From TrEMBL:
InterPro entries: Dihaem_cytochrome-c (IPR018588), Multihaem_cyt_sf (IPR036280). SUPFAM superfamilies: Multiheme cytochromes (SSF48695). Pfam families: DHC. It comes from Thiobacillus sedimenti. It comes from the Bacteria. This is Diheme cytochrome c.
């Protein structure tokens, strides 16, 4: 009888310890799909400085290499603006974007984005990816056009930590 009692206590203790560990260890998945930190651990200073001077420096994992090549190859017509850079800076930023792109195989976010694209898709806008559309399908078009937001490309309007690469759904605050 004592052996069964002691085994029972051992089993309950083991299950309790396993549960405690499972819920206390850090996990990116616990941050949710699209959440968590999407920036690589090492970022390009040129990318931060040049891209963030006009908008959020979008995480490289949001688009595949082919998209970044197209985008960086057309900086003189960058969504209606001339965002030309000197060749060395442009090459440095492109290298960073390609190294950390959705199809570089280094991030879970990139894997999610790539699963939503066709093999030859190379969208110029993150908002054109099926991943983005699916993640934001509950947001009415009227919300995007609010003066406080402007467009779906203004990540920082609702994702207050977008500049740090944090897109946790629980932290979304849609401005009025």
């Amino acid at each position: 009888m004592n052996n069964y009692f002691l085994r029972g206590i051992g089993v309950v203790g083991a299950v309790g310890l396993a549960s405690l560990l499972a819920f206390s260890l850090p996990s990116n998945e616990a941050r949710g799909d699209g959440g968590g930190r999407v920036l690589p651990q090492t970022v390009s200073k040129a990318w931060q400085q040049e891209c963030a001077s006009c908008h959020v420096a979008y995480a490289p994992a949001f688009l595949p290499k082919a998209s970044w090549r197209r985008l960086m190859g057309g900086l003189d017509h960058h969504f209606g603006e001339n965002a030309s850079l000197d060749p060395a800076t442009q090459a440095d930023i492109l290298r960073f974007l390609e190294t950390n792109a959705a199809d570089s195989g280094t991030s879970r976010m990139g894997s999610r984005v790539m699963r939503s694209l066709g093999a030859n898709d190379a969208p110029l806008r993150i908002t054109e990816t099926r991943w983005f559309v699916r993640k934001h399908d509950e947001v009415p078009h009227a919300v995007w056009s609010r003066k406080s937001i402007g467009s779906a490309a203004n990540c920082a309007a609702c994702h207050r930590q977008a500049e740090q690469g944090l897109f946790d759904e629980d932290a979304v605050r849609i401005p009025k």
